[in-house]
Amino acid sequence: MKKIIVLIAVLLGLGLQGFAADVMPDTVSLIRTNTLGVYQVSSPIKIYENPDIKSKVKTVITYTKDTLEPSNLTFQDVFVVYKDKKDLAVMAVVDETEDWVEVIYDNKTGASGWIVKDDPYKFATWVNFYTTYGKKYGLYTLKGMPDKIKDMHGSPDDTSKVISVMNYPTKINLNIIRGNWMLLSILDIDKTPKTGFVRWRSDDGVKYFFPAIK
Question: What is the pTM assigned to this prediction?
Answer without folding.
Answer: 0.87
